[in-house]
Each structure stands twice: as structure tokens, then as C-alpha cells.
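User: two proteins, same treatment. go.

Assistant:
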Amino acid sequence: MEEAHRRTQGSDPRAVLLDVRERSEWDAGHAPGAVYAPLSGLVTGSALPQAAHGSPLVVMCRSGNRSQQAAELLRARGADAVDVKGGMKAWAAAGYPVVDGRGNNGSVA
């Protein structure tokens, strides 16, 4: 988890944190600065959001299952993608911030 935070939120972030959960989960709470691209869309061929193009991707979901699937799918498409073991549950447990759709304190749904 520390590595994911350092690569995406640290003083010199070099990767994009890609959240692949569904909209209701994202709206309840996500990491600040994360980019939203649900796994359901990626599976059906949706393109990555522009903010995720050309950068290494650190892929997150709630617990790590969907992010592993998404990272594999994205690597097959040629992206540099790794998944976050433990997902948002581990992110929040480590004390990293979680914000809702309005930028207020969020929760992991």
C-alpha cells in the first residue's frame, strides 16, 4: 500500500491511480486524485480516460479482486499496470485519505 501511495500521491507522483469500482462505490469514497474507469466498462472495450493515457497505472478496487483483473486486461492492451493488493479497504486502513464525490471525507463502500 505504501508503494501505491508513493507512486501516485507522493511528492513526485509518476503513476496514475486508476479506480475500477462501480459508480456508487466511487461516489461514496475514493483516493484524492484518482481517475475513474470502472472494470465493467474496460471489459466491454471502453477506452481509458485521457488522464490515464501515457502513464504507468496503479489500479485499485475495493479489495483487490477487480483491480487484478483490470491490471491484467490493461497489460494485455499494452499498458504498464499493476494492481493494489487489498484495494481501498487497505488504503483506508493505512490512514490514507478517502474523499467522496464532493471532496468531503468519504467512506469505502
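Protein 2:
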Amino acid sequence: MATSKLQALWNHPAGPKTIHFWAPTFKWGISIANIADASKPPEKISYPQQIAVTATGLIWSRYSTVITPKNWNLFSVNIVMACTGIYQLTRKIQHEYSSDEKQAVTAKE
């Protein structure tokens, strides 16, 4: 049973014998790096980089569902990329909003 499932994965059109498997697998490195950046101070987060990560994730996750063969590895890595990009953008925006409020309060005092 397990042998037949492994054989099916090996021979799949988006399996390990193709670039359709390896490209998204290596793309996981970007998502992992973005997760690791969650400990980075918000002021060091780059808007252009996170917008690009989010847009790439959203665009390619859609594309991965319309191509033949459907590439679920590509879909999952791009969903994670979009989510981590949105998270980082949210952190940056919240930090800047709270910094602006603090500056306004100190200016009034």
C-alpha cells in the first residue's frame, strides 16, 4: 500500500522527477525566512518586500489551481507566503500607527 502511494507520488506529473516539485519546495525557504523575520523589529520591515511577497503569494496560489497538473505544493507555499506577508505588513502598519499616536500625545504635552 505505502509502496504504491510512493510510486504514485514519484510518477506524478508534479512529482520529484520534475521542476514542478522542486521549484515550490525551494520556495519554502522564502516563507521560512519570513516566519523567522517575525522576531525582527517592525521598523526594520520593508514595505516593498512584503508587498511583493504578499502579491506573489496571492497571484501564484491562484495560478497553481488553474494549471495542469494541479500543483498543490505550489499552492500551499504561496498561501503561506501571502499569509506571512500580510502578517508582516500588519505588524509594520500597527507599529507606525502606534508611533504616530505616541508622537501626537507627546507633542500635545
